[in-house]
Amino acid sequence: AEYMGSCSKRAVNKRMSSFAQKLFMPGIVPKLKARVLQLPLPENVKRILDHPAGPFTIHFWAPAFKWAISIANIADINRPVDKVSLEQQTAVALTGIIWSRYSFVITPVNYNLFSVNAAMFLTGGFQLYRVVMYKYFGKEVYWGKKPETAASAASAAPAAAPVPAK
Q1: Is the N end or the C end of the chain the one with fewer CB atoms within 10 Å?
Q2: Smallest Cα–Cα separation from 53: which of 122, 107, 101?
C-alpha cells in the first residue's frame, strides 16, 4: 500500500471501476429502459421489463441465445445415431442439469435460465440415451417412427415394368 500514498485500496478500486464503467458502459441501456418504462404499458409487462433478470440485463439474453443449442438438438432428434457425438451430448446434458440447479441458487432467481437448461438436459439426455443404446446395446432409438433413407425407399418401391420395344 506504499505506492498508493494516502489513498486507500478501496478508493482506488472505486475510481478504477467508475472509469471502466464510463469507458465501457456509457449508460445507453438504463436510459432506454427508463424511456420504455414510461410508455403506457400494462403493469405486468412493466414488472417483467423492470425485473433484475429482465430483457434489459445480460441475465435475460444469455439464456435466450442458449436456446439455439436445444433447438439444434430437437432438429437432430432423428439424425442417424452414428453421427451423434457421445462427448458432446454428455456435455450438453451435464451443463443442463448443473445450470438448472444454479439458476435457483443465484440472485435474482432466473426462471429463463432454468427453462433453457432444463430443455438442454432433456434434449441432451435423449440424444445421450440414443447414443448409448446404439453403441453399447446395438439398438437404434428414434422419436416416433424410423425415418426412411433414400436406399430403403428405393428398395421398398416396386420395380418398374420394362418398356416394350417397337
Answers
A1: C
A2: 107
108 cis-preceded (ω within 30 degrees of 0): yes
Please say whether the beta carbons of 121 and 97 come within 8 A.
yes
DSSP sequence for 87-108: HHHHHHHHHHHHHHHHHHHSSS
pLDDT one-digit tens code per residue, 98-114:
999 999 998 888 899 99
Q: How far apart are CA 106 and CA 111, in angstroms?
A: 11
- Provide the whole-model pTM: 0.66
